[in-house]
Design brief:
about 250 residues; Rossmann fold
């Protein structure tokens, strides 16, 4: 038994970012051809394309604004013309901003989180679900959520609001397109170790780790492994799920 994505086309938004790069490498290592979406970091996207090519997989770089429907539709057209119908959509991109209290957080930050979490999810569904449905071979939508959506800690309000809105879209979408064999799930990372931490030597945080049942932070590879699992046939009967990959730091209840 293995995660075999041979013959599949996967799109990862925010693919040039810390988590996105590892997701792309992991999906490609499982056999998928990959669409590498980026917003502004063309150099990292190009380097990632070279890595995927060295694995023997096809890779396409596409720049798009994930908060703009026309931009996402243009990305879909480019992908279908050059690679084909997308099988796996991973919504990973999100707007970054400085966190502060509800009373101090600029209104524009709430709008940015709504646009990059909720509307990105809507626009990706509108763009890519019809092709999956028409082809009749199923498909995968995987949203990257966060443990913060359950924690609701101080200074997280804009991020939590955006990700909770995303959660609503994904759960409803799971019901609406499930009859076509398309699964819709969310991966919710905890505070994850990435190359940024490795470069700075900031992998450890005793205060955070003390709250986690497994007593450590997770890694970018562990997040990517969960994405690859949900993208595979091994997860064919899982849909509508919010799956924390946070070492037990959050535990959704029944």
């Amino acid at each position: 038994m293995k995660l075999d994505l041979t013959g599949k086309i996967a799109l990862v938004t925010g693919a040039s970012g810390d988590l996105g790069r590892v997701m792309v490498r992991t999906l490609a290592s499982c056999g998928a051809d990959v669409v590498i979406h980026y917003n502004s970091n063309a150099a990292k996207a190009e380097a990632l394309r070279a890595e995927v090519g060295a694995m023997g997989r096809r890779a396409l770089i596409v720049q798009a604004d994930i908060t703009d429907q026309a931009s996402i539709e243009a990305m879909k057209t480019a992908v279908e013309q050059q690679l084909g119908v997308v099988d796996i959509v991973v919504a990973n991109a999100v707007i970054q901003y400085a966190w502060t209290s509800v009373l101090e957080q600029p209104a524009a930050d709430y709008q940015g989180q709504f646009d990059s979490c909720v509307m990105q999810s809507v626009y990706l569904a509108k763009a890519f679900a019809p092709g999956m449905i028409a082809r009749g071979q199923g498909g995968r939508f995987i949203g990257i959520n966060t443990e913060c959506a359950i924690q609701n800690f101080a200074n997280q309000s804009a991020y939590v609001a955006g990700k909770r809105g995303m959660d609503g879209v994904y759960r409803v979408l799971a019901r609406e397109i499930g009859e076509h064999g398309i699964t819709v799930n969310q991966v919710a990372p905890g505070w994850t170790i990435s190359d940024r931490d490795r470069d700075k030597g900031t992998e450890r945080s005793e205060s955070y780790e003390s709250t986690v049942p497994l007593k450590r932070r997770g890694t970018d590879q562990e997040i990517a492994n969960t994405v690859a699992f949900l993208a595979s046939d091994l997860a064919s009967f899982i849909t509508g799920a919010y799956i924390p990959v946070a070492g037990g730091n959050v535990m959704p209840a029944i």
